[in-house]
């Protein structure tokens, strides 16, 4: 199954807010065998939201959106999806009751605008939110699944684990992501690629990414497969070929930092590092 993530909120299009929810969702989806092929950040304009969902549904089976489920007028994710799918928004008495109970629990009066959070598109499954007032929504239409989750990370993470993950796990096809990470020191990115391109380009079913980082080059190998043993053997073969091509420049095949590798070697050999600073002449 392939998925796209849509982060909703005009504030995410400014330098003041960063979308961290997509990182969490990508990790969880990959673990479930769902490949994230695209991420998008969309403002709160209704037409832009509708277009983003329509475009995503043309490409993938699963669309997950975060944000835009609050009580204010600029929270329009529900409306955009309901309009796109041709479904009416109906106020759910059950959801309304839970929102009121939530406000009683925290000892605050409920504003009338919070009633907007009880609007549910026809046919949607409500996903309970024990940490906030905005419920999530699970919709199925035209062979697609659309999941709407609130923006606050502490609410989203708890809801995904309790409400979304079990449902997606039941849809699993057995495909899993397998990955390897090597790190290289003392070589530039272009030099690394020149040496190993003849190796990784022979394998269309493995995605190879070469990344430059401070003091090192990272080589990531990823493949999706239902046969984990065969996939591991393939990754092992590619890894061994790359290590042979790069030699001692590869300081780890486990994705460790240079500091971790040095600390491990020092511990293994019961060795220490000493440093000294020259004394200034007085």
Question: What would you note in describing this structure?
Answer:
The protein is of the alpha/beta class. It has two domains: 2-170, 3-Layer(aba) Sandwich (Molybdenum Cofactor Biosythetic Enzyme, Chain A); 176-268, Alpha-Beta Plaits (2-Layer Sandwich), CATH 3.30.70.2860. Helix content is 38%, strand content 25%. The chain contains eight helices and twelve strands. It has helices at residues 21-31, 46-59, 77-85, 93-106, 153-170, 189-200, 228-246, 258-268, and strands spanning 2-8, 35-42, 62-66, 89-91, 119-121, 125-127, 136-141, 144-149, 176-184, 207-213, 216-225, 250-252. The strands form three sheets. A six-stranded mixed sheet has the order 2-1-3-8-7-6, sandwiched between helices. A hairpin with a 2-residue loop joins β10 and β11 (216-225). α1 packs parallel to α5. It is elongated, with a radius of gyration of 24 Å. The mean pLDDT is 92.
**Roughly what fraction of the amino acids lie in strands?**
15-25%
Number of domains: 2
- Main sheet summary: 6 strands, mixed
Widest sheet, order of strands: 2-1-3-8-7-6
Counting DSSP H or I runs of 4 or more residues, the number of helices is: 8
CA-based gyration radius = 24 Å
Question: Which architecture of the largest domain would the CATH scheme give at its second level?
Answer: 3-Layer(aba) Sandwich
* Helix and strand sequence: EHEHEHEHEEEEHEHEEHEH
> Averaging pLDDT over every residue, what do you get?
92
Give the fraction of residues assigned to helices: 25-40%
Identify the CATH class of the largest domain. Answer: Alpha Beta
- Cα(first) to Cα(last) distance is 70 Å
What fold name goes in the CATH topology slot of the largest domain? Molybdenum Cofactor Biosythetic Enzyme, Chain A
Weakly predicted, low-confidence segments: none
CATH homology-level superfamily of the largest domain = MoaB/Mog-like domain
Number of strands: 12
């Amino acid at each position: 199954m392939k998925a796209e993530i849509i982060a909703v909120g005009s504030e995410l299009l400014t330098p003041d807010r960063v979308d961290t929810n997509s990182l969490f969702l990508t990790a969880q989806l990959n673990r479930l065998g769902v490949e994230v092929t695209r991420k998008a950040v969309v403002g709160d304009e209704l037409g832009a939201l509708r277009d983003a969902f329509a475009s995503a549904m043309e490409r993938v089976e699963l669309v997950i959106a975060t944000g835009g489920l609050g009580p204010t007028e600029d929270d329009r994710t529900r409306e955009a999806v309901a309009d796109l799918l041709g479904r009416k928004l109906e106020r759910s008495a059950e959801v309304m009751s839970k929102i009121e109970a939530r406000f009683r629990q925290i000892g605050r009066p409920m504003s009338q605008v919070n009633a907007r959070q009880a609007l549910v598109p026809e046919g949607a499954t409500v996903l309970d939110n024990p940490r906030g007032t905005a419920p999530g929504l699970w919709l199925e239409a035209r062979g697609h699944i659309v999941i709407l989750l609130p923006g606050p990370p502490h609410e989203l993470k708890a809801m995904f684990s309790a409400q979304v993950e079990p449902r997606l796990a039941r849809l699993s096809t057995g495909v899993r992501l397998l990955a390897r990470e090597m790190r290289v020191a003392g070589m530039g990115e272009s030099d690394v690629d020149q040496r190993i391109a003849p190796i990784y380009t022979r394998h269309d079913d493995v995605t190879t990414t070469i990344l430059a980082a401070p003091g090192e080059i990272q080589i990531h190998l990823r493949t999706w497969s239902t046969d984990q043993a065969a996939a591991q053997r393939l990754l092992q073969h590619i890894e061994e070929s790359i290590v042979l091509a790069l030699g001692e420049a590869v300081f780890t095949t486990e994705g460790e930092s240079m500091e971790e590798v040095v600390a491990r070697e020092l511990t293994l050999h019961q060795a220490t590092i000493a440093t000294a600073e020259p004394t200034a002449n007085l």
